[in-house]
Amino acid sequence: MTKHLPQSAAAPLARGSLITLRRKCGTPTCSCAKGRPHESPALSYSIDGSTKMLTLRAQDVREVRAALKRYQKAVQALEREALAGIRMLRQRIRLQKDAVRAAR
C-alpha cells in the first residue's frame, strides 16, 4: 500500500453545502431596499447539531466546490470499503459454520 500525504496537505476536504446568502443591508437608498437583495456565497455546515455559515469570497467558490466533491468521493469510498469488510466477515463466518458442519 502506498503512503499518501494527509488529505489536508494534498487537497482539503469540506463537508456541508454551498449556498447563496440573500439579505438586505438596511440602507434605505440601496437597491436591496427595492427588492434586489445582496448575494454572497457561503458554506453551510453543522457542528454538534448546530448549523454554521462561512461567508465566502467569489474567488473561494471553486476551491470550496472541489473540496465538497472530494469529501463526497471520500465518503463513497469509505462506504464501499465498509461494505467490502462486511462481505468478508459474512464469508468468513459462513466458511467457519461450514467447517463445523463438515466436522460433525
Concise summary:
The chain is α+β, with helices and mostly antiparallel strands. The protein has two helices and three strands; from the N terminus they run H-E-E-E-H. The protein is rod-shaped, with a radius of gyration of 24 Å.
Plain-language structure description:
It contains two helices and three strands. It is an alpha+beta fold and 104 residues long. The protein has one domain. Strands 1-2-3 form a three-stranded antiparallel β-sheet, with helices on one face.
- Strand residues, percent: 15-25%
For the record, the count of structural domains works out to: 1
The helical percent reads 40-55%
Number of helices: 2
Please report the distance between the alpha carbons of the first and last residues.
41 Å
The number of E-state strands comes to 3
Please give the radius of gyration in angstroms.
Answer: 24 Å
The largest sheet is: 3 strands, antiparallel
Average pLDDT for all residues? 91
Q: Name the overall outline.
A: rod-shaped
The secondary-structure element order is: HEEEH
Biggest sheet, strands in spatial order?
A: 1-2-3
Global structural class: alpha+beta
Low-confidence stretches: 1-5
Helix and strand topology:
Blueprint: H1 7-10, E1 17-23, E2 38-47, E3 50-55, H2 61-103
Antiparallel strand pairs: 1-2, 2-3
List its traits.
single chain, about 100 residues, alpha+beta, three-stranded antiparallel β-sheet, 2 helices, 3 strands, rod-shaped
